C-alpha cells in the first residue's frame, strides 16, 4: 500500500468504534477550534458518565493534584482548554487503548506521569500540557491496530520473535511508524499544533522545531517508563535515547535520581488508580 | 497496608486510607474499623477496592527485578548514554530494597 493511500485509510478513522455516541458528539465539540470553555463544560456536565470519567482522570496522578478537583468547571479552569481537549481524548481512548494492546494504557499513563515530573524538574511552564502529549504520544498505535487489526497483531508478533522494536516492525510492514500515523490522525482531528509535533517526533525529538524541549521530555519519559518496566508499549527492549535529546535536557545525576524516586511514588498511586478503574 | 477488593473485605478490618466517592467526598475516614453494615454500603456505592491495614502484596525479589531490568536493556546498553541510564536504574532498585 502506498503512503498516500495508507494515510487516507488512517484518516478515515474519524471516530473510535467502541465509543458511545456521547463521545462522538464530544469529539465534534472539541474539534471546533472556536469552542469556549463554557460550552465544553456544559457539554460534559450534561452527561453524568462523562462527568464521572473526567473527574476521575483529572484527579488521577497524571495531573498531580489528586483529590482536589470536584467539578468540571473547576477542572477546566485549572487545566485550560488545550489540556482538557487532550484529556477528553485520553478518556475516550482509555478502553480502546487497552483493547488495542494490553498494557498500552498503563504505558501511556506512566509516560504522562513521568513527563510531568521531568517537566517540573526542568521548570517548564504548563507541565500539564506535556502530560497530555505524553498520554497521547502513542495514539498512532491505537489507530493502526484499529484499522489494521490482524496486521498489527502480526507486527507485534514479528517484533517479539525477531527482537525488533515495534517501530522497526511497523516500518517493515507499512513503511511508516505509529509516530507518523499518530500525527496524521492528530492533524485530521485538529489537535493543537504542539500536540501534533510531540506525537510526530517522540522518537526524533531533534527534528521538533517549535517545541524541542517538550518533545525531548516526552521522548525521555517514554524511555524511562519502559526502562522501569511499567505497562507495555509493544517493545520488548528499552529503545535508545536520542543523544541530542539527552544532551539538550542536560539532567544531572542527582536530577535523574530524584526523577526515578518521584516516579516510584507517583506510579504507586497510578497503579491504585488503574486498579480502581477496573 | 494493602489494597483489597470490596468483595474480599471482612468485618474488623481497619481502613488505612479514607474511602472517597467520585467527587472526592470522604465516606469513611482513615482508621475506621469496618462492620458488616459498612461493607454492605461500600458494595451499594459501587466502590471497587479500599486500602486496609496489613501486609501489602508480596514484592518481587530484588534479584528478579534486576534480571528483568538486565533483559530489557540487552539490546541497547551499549548505545550512547544507555549504560548511564541502566546504572541509574540499578542503583535506584538497590536503594529501594535497602
A few lines on this structure:
The complex is a heterodimer of chains A (278) and B (98). Chain A has helices at 3-11, 21-31, 37-45, 48-58, 72-100, 104-121, 127-136, 139-147, 149-162, 166-174, 178-188, 193-201, 212-228, 243-249, 253-277. By secondary structure, chain A is an all-alpha fold.
Detailed description of the structure:
The complex is a heterodimer of chains A (278) and B (98). Chain A has 278 residues and is mainly α. Helix content of chain A is 71%, strand content 0%. Chain A has a single domain (3-17, 97-277), classed as Hypothetical protein af1432, CATH 1.10.3210.10. Chain A has helices spanning 3-11, 21-31, 37-45, 48-58, 72-100, 104-121, 127-136, 139-147, 149-162, 166-174, 178-188, 193-201, 212-228, 243-249, 253-277. In chain A, α8 crosses α11 (178-188). The model of chain A has no long low-confidence stretch (mean pLDDT 85). Chain B starts with a strand and ends with a helix. In chain B, β2 and β3 (26-28) form a beta hairpin. Chain B has helices spanning 36-44, 62-73, 82-96, and strands at 2-5, 19-20, 26-28, 49-52. Chain B is built from three helices and four strands; from the N terminus they run βββαβαα. The longest helix of chain B is centred in the C-terminal third of the chain and has 15 residues, at 82-96. In chain B, the strands form two sheets. A two-stranded antiparallel ribbon of chain B has the order 1-4. Chain B has two domains: 2-52, Alpha-Beta Complex (Molybdopterin biosynthesis moea protein, domain 2); 62-96, no CATH class. Chain A binds chain B through residues 52, 55-56, 59, 67-70, 163, 223-224, 226-229, 236-241, 243, 246, 253, 256-257, 260-261, 264, 272, 275-276, 278, and chain B through 3, 20, 22-25, 48-49, 51, 68-69, 72-76, 79-82, 85-86, 88-89, 91-92, 96.
